[in-house]
Design goal:
- The chain is of the alpha+beta class and 837 residues long.
- The protein is 44% helix and 24% strand.
- The protein has 27 helices and 28 strands.
- A hairpin with a 5-residue loop joins strand 4 and strand 5.
- Helix 24 runs parallel beside helix 25.
- The radius of gyration is 59 Å and the shape is elongated.
- It starts with 6 loop residues before the first helix and ends with a helix.
Length: 837
């Protein structure tokens, strides 16, 4: 090749340049061989000295490329490739830096290595690593050898590796996990940012291994050192939980993992590990463990057995106490469902399983069942089982149920005993009520003869001495009747069988009529002043039972009159404002009598109780009135009490809630109607005779019929004495009396004759009064006959007897013994409207 054809000689016109092509060819062949072997590209570039700028410059018109270089760059083998053309393959951004690096290398004769991003002739992008070495030649220039290697795959792998490392670091940070490593050769310790955070240190100043171990508490540091030694000696990884004291002095629980990384020859290269702050988790576990321990202590203290059932696996745990309840030691029976099921009676087992299914399905929030379990000794123990769903899966299906067994055998036996005692008490109460009803009936029958004939006899010609004797008999009989009524009232209120009415009435009129009944005994015999004061805010009408309220007032005012020799008795009605819209009617009875101590005030309302025995001997009485009044007031929803007055005497008071009648309700009944109401207690109606003077005979009562035709009365009575009493009393009232002895004759007689009123006994042979009344009412309805007034005249004085009479169709009720005034009032009330109709 001639010098004109040699591009290197043209670029470098220096002595000896003609020999250069041989050198270049050898280098070219060597570079090509290396490229083919290592799959890399290469080029040889000559440089010359620029005289004007005294700096090297490349011979840009000639560069020798190996075949592998052309293949790497996507170029044809036969086409020329100038440096300028090659530089255009490099990205515009990286091109200046590459040129500067080549110039600097040519000038300083230093090698360099640089990775560039280029696009080959086919438009394919690649990362290429350029390695450059420079050999000086003569004094005019240098030869530069460039080696090109496609590092795209390694770059991609590095990028993927960096992304993976970044992802893992992010996940570790999110999980609160730090990583660390120790190089075996150098002992260099590396911490991730999270490890610094856990130690409360700023990242960057990594401590030595010894300093890192010093963060552990003294008792834990030795454990860490021992485990590290075992790891290095035996290659055994470790996992430990220890405590550290951070740079800021805070104690933390940490979880550390470590294992050994080996080199390709199997020699230890480094220790790698993780570090995680588990303080909150450890404290939570500690609290849970302490809670479970306290729960177990509580269970042991409460003597409850524990059961724990994992439903998906059917795994069941039964505590030792669970087994002890039925007489077994822990090792004697297993933890199986059959241990429970085989010891529970079948019917109770089915009920318990139904309750458990209701809890599991969410019908009930908790599981609760009572059943018997067979004890080891063959007896049965009553068990209270309770449980709760402790865990559910994503589909809300139960995973775990935890509960207890409590031995309630003694409680059940006590409960059964209480039930038996209650039933026995109810039977005793029923027997007592039946006894009282029978006693009342048997006493009232002869007492009816005594009082009835006494009243009839008092209407005849009598001397003063005879009249006084009869008044004593009448007063004594009336007092006996009141005692009998008090006993019946007390029995009914204590048994809860007394039912109050709920009708509108006027409280002021109720109090006024009570005072009128007691006026004679107060003013004529003792010269007492009876006073009534009604405040303006007292409602004109309220709802309640006026007869029972008047019974309470008769007791309170009657006692005040009885225990007061001089002065006054004042009844005051007022209102009290309570919480919300509540208002109470306040009734107080103030007297100037013997008074009562605060000690006695607390027990006066007990049955058969008075202030002291002297009072009983002086004033008499059974001590039942206040007890009955207390029971009645409680039934009304109120309270009753008493207290001594500062100026002497005493004050008894009653508070009952005010319920005003609804708009459009029936008007309040008048006091006469209340006095003669079929449901009014006979005791209230009988109070007046007790207070009557016994100085002279009572005047004969006026005939209710007046001057008109006599009243035809049919008396249905089987007792001969009662027949005589009824006939004489009714004849004294001007009635024409027809007498029959049983209910069947009453049905027949009323069908044949006309009567204005029928007085019907209830207990009779052949046919009782209830059935007789029903048959008469059925005949009236069938034939369209007018209603015949029928009044019960019976010794059955219980509340249930009154209801039975009303239910049979009777119009009114009079209990024996019958007083003449009561009989007159009934005739006036029943017969007069009937005749008017």
């Amino acid at each position: 090749m001639s010098p004109e054809q040699n591009p290197i000689a043209q670029c470098c016109p220096i002595p000896g340049a003609a020999k250069e092509p041989a050198y270049c060819d050898g280098a070219q062949r060597l570079l090509g061989t290396i490229g083919d072997t290592l799959y890399v590209g290469g080029a040889i570039l000559s440089w010359c000295l620029d005289d004007e700028r005294s700096s090297p410059r490349p011979c840009l018109d000639s560069i020798d490329w190996t075949a592998s270089s052309r293949l790497l760059l996507g170029l044809k083998h036969d086409g020329p490739l100038t440096p300028r053309r090659a530089l255009r393959l490099v990205t515009r951004k990286e091109r200046p830096a590459l040129v500067r690096a080549i110039r600097e290398s040519a000038r300083s004769h230093r090698s360099f290595r640089q990775t560039i991003h280029l696009t080959d002739s086919r438009g394919k992008q690649a990362w290429v690593e350029v390695s450059c070495t420079v050999e000086p030649e003569f004094d005019a220039g240098s030869t530069m050898t460039l080696v090109f290697q496609n590092v795209s795959q390694s770059r991609l792998r590095e990028a993927a590796l960096r992304r993976e490392i970044l992802r893992r670091d992010q996940m570790a940070r999110m999980a609160g996990i730090g990583t660390w490593s120790v190089e075996i050769a150098s002992g260099e310790l590396t911490w991730s940012d999270e490890v610094f955070n856990i130690h409360e240190m700023e990242p960057g100043s990594t401590p030595s291994v010894g300093e890192a171990i010093a963060f552990y508490t003294p008792e834990d540091a030795s454990v860490v050192e021992e485990r590290l030694e075992r790891l290095l000696r035996d290659g055994i990884p470790y996992e430990i939980v220890n405590r550290i004291i951070t740079a800021k002095g805070n104690r933390r629980w940490v979880h550390a993992l470590a294992e050994l990384e080996l080199d390709p020859d199997g020699e230890p290269l480094r220790i790698i590990g993780s570090f995680r702050d588990i303080t909150e988790q450890h404290e939570a576990e500690t609290r849970l463990r302490e809670s479970e321990e306290r729960y177990m202590y509580a269970l042991e203290g409460a003597r409850d057995g524990l059961w724990d059932w994992v439903i998906p696996t059917s795994e069941l745990h039964l505590s030792p106490r669970w087994k002890e309840i039925i007489g077994y030691a822990d090792h004697e029976i297993g933890n199986h469902f059959d241990e429970w099921a085989s010891r529970v009676p079948e019917d109770q087992r089915e009920q318990a399983l139904k309750a458990f299914e209701a809890c599991v399905s969410g019908v009930t929030p908790d599981y609760r069942a009572e059943f018997q379990m067979r004890h080891k000794d063959g007896s049965y123990r009553w068990i209270l089982a309770r449980g709760k769903i402790m865990a559910r899966d994503a589909h809300h299906q139960p995973l775990r149920v935890v509960g207890t067994h409590t031995d309630i055998t003694e409680e059940v036996e006590m409960r059964n005993a209480l039930v038996a005692a209650k039933e026995a008490a109810e039977q005793a109460t029923t027997a007592k009520s039946e006894f009282l009803a029978t006693m009342s009936h048997e006493i009232r029958t002869p007492l009816n003869g005594i009082l009835g004939l006494t009243q009839v006899l008092m209407g005849t010609e009598l001397g003063r001495e005879q009249a006084n004797y009869l008044n004593v008999i009448l007063g004594s009989g009336t007092a006996l009747l009141e005692i009998l009524n008090d006993i019946l009232d007390l029995s009914r209120t204590e048994a809860g069988k007394l039912v109050l009415e709920d009708v509108p009435f006027r409280p002021a009129e109720c109090a006024r009529s009570t005072i009128e009944l007691l006026k004679h005994a107060a003013t004529k015999k003792k010269n007492l002043e009876l006073q009534l004061r009604v405040d303006d805010d007292v409602p004109e009408e309220i709802m309640g039972d006026p007869a029972r309220l008047r019974q309470v007032l008769l007791n309170l005012v009657g006692n005040a009159v009885k225990f007061t020799e001089s002065g006054f008795v004042r009844v005051t009605l007022s209102t009290l404002v309570g919480e919300g819209d509540r208002r109470d009617l306040m009734i107080s009875v103030r007297d100037t009598g013997i008074g009562v101590t605060q000690k006695d005030a607390t027990r006066l309302f007990e049955a058969f109780t008075q202030a002291d025995s002297t009072t009983t001997r002086r004033f008499g009485g059974t001590g039942l009135g206040l007890s009955i009044s207390r029971n009645l007031v409680h039934l009304m929803g109120g309270v009753i009490g008493c207290r001594p007055h500062l100026q002497g005497g005493s004050v008894f008071w009653v508070e009952i809630p005010i319920v005003e009648p609804a708009a459009g309700s029936a008007p309040a009944a008048t006091i006469p109607e209340l006095r003669s109401s079929s449901t009014a207690p006979q005791r209230a109606l009988m109070a007046a005779p007790r207070m009557e003077s016994i100085e002279g005979p009572k005047q004969p009562a006026a005939d209710p019929a007046g001057d008109g035709p006599s009243i035809r009365a049919l008396v249905v009575e089987d007792n001969p004495i009662n027949q005589i009493v009824a006939r004489r009393m009714l004849e004294k009232l001007g009635c024409h009396v027809v007498m029959v002895a049983d209910g069947q004759r009453a049905v027949d007689t009323t069908a044949q004759e006309a009567f204005d009123i029928v007085f019907m006994d209830c207990q009779m042979p052949v046919m009782d009064g209830y059935e007789s009344t029903r048959l008469i009412r059925e005949r009236e309805a069938r034939l369209g006959l007018p209603r015949l007034p029928i009044v019960a005249m019976t010794a059955n004085a219980m509340a249930s007897d009154r209801e039975a009479c009303r239910g049979a169709g009777m119009d009114d009720y009079v209990s024996k013994p019958v007083l003449l005034d009561v009989l007159r009032a009934v005739i006036e009330r029943v017969v007069a409207p009937s005749k008017a109709a």
